[in-house]
Amino acid sequence: MVQRNSNDYGYKNPDPAKGWQPGQSGNPNGRPKSSVTTLLKNRNPEDNKKVADTLYALAIRGDMSAIREYIDRTDGKVTETRLTLGIMAHTTPELLEQAQKRLTGAMNGTRELKEKYNVEGTS
């Protein structure tokens, strides 16, 4: 077996004697009890209602960050906001028809969301 010295270990080449063993946690004590999330979850439910009411009031007044937060919390975060149509220079009529269907579906989805949230604007 080849002897290795401490200079043989480093970036992308860790020393196996210093690493964690299989099944060993890198954080054996877990999240600290004083973490912000833990403290917020243990607050008085009435305080949580006040925060939710304040967020709702800001969203109603048109605060975009409050609106975004409210929608993220109630409907879930949007993961993809772009619509890919896949139109190329050599596109066939069939591919154009498929792209048109995807675009129409996206427009209908936007219209439904606007109606659901009572949003005015161009279609």
From TrEMBL:
Biased composition annotated in UniProt, kind: Polar residues: 22-41
Entries under InterPro entries matching the protein: DUF5681 (IPR043736)
Region span, Disordered: 1-48
Ranges for domain DUF5681: 19-77
Name the UniProt record assigns to this protein: DUF5681 domain-containing protein
Organism of this sequence: marine sediment metagenome
